[in-house]
């Protein structure tokens, strides 16, 4: 198995990169999806969140009210840290299970773990490669306003609640510049895929007797 950690700031093109890698045959594990499952109705993590932040973060059906919780944590670094301390361990357990499942299904699989908070959560899976998507803040804010109908001020707050570009670049093995056109981003992903397979073949040749 070859394990890629894919990360980058909000609206920096991670989903586009992940989709293209899947088109090439990679197995995709989405940390955001796992985080939603981890705080689903009846889960221990949801109960801990309600205890920590009060019943106002639950809706009438007892599910998580993401807008209410987001209003609390994205303006308060301490609150965000408390939330992360609840959610991250649950997501880590689930991602471990998914990675093991992928390896059992195909020992030669290329697995892409798409994890926006790789830096913040101190994710330490044994990655073979860490890929960071990089776009300037102005571009990311524009995407969030145009594509997600988000207020520009809220978009800026979301960006600044995450790790800095410098922190992400410090852990990167590969940086994909995603501030240009879609075609330019996809070209970089295609080249990365070719390089991954060339590198694996080189290692196999060198290791052969």
Automatic annotation (TrEMBL):
Biological or metabolic pathway of the protein: Cofactor biosynthesis; coenzyme A biosynthesis; CoA from (R)-pantothenate: step 5/5
GO terms of molecular function: ATP binding; dephospho-CoA kinase activity
Listed name of the protein: Dephospho-CoA kinase
A single Gene Ontology CC term: cytoplasm
Enzyme Commission code: 2.7.1.24
Pfam families registered for this protein in UniProt: CoaE
Reactions catalysed: 3'-dephospho-CoA + ATP = ADP + CoA + H(+)
GO biological process entries: coenzyme A biosynthetic process
Organism field: Cryobacterium shii
HAMAP family: Dephospho_CoA_kinase
Cellular localization per UniProt: Cytoplasm
Function: Catalyzes the phosphorylation of the 3'-hydroxyl group of dephosphocoenzyme A to form coenzyme A.
Keyword S-adenosyl-L-methionine: no
Binding site for ATP: 11-16
Broad class of where this protein is predominantly found: cytoplasm
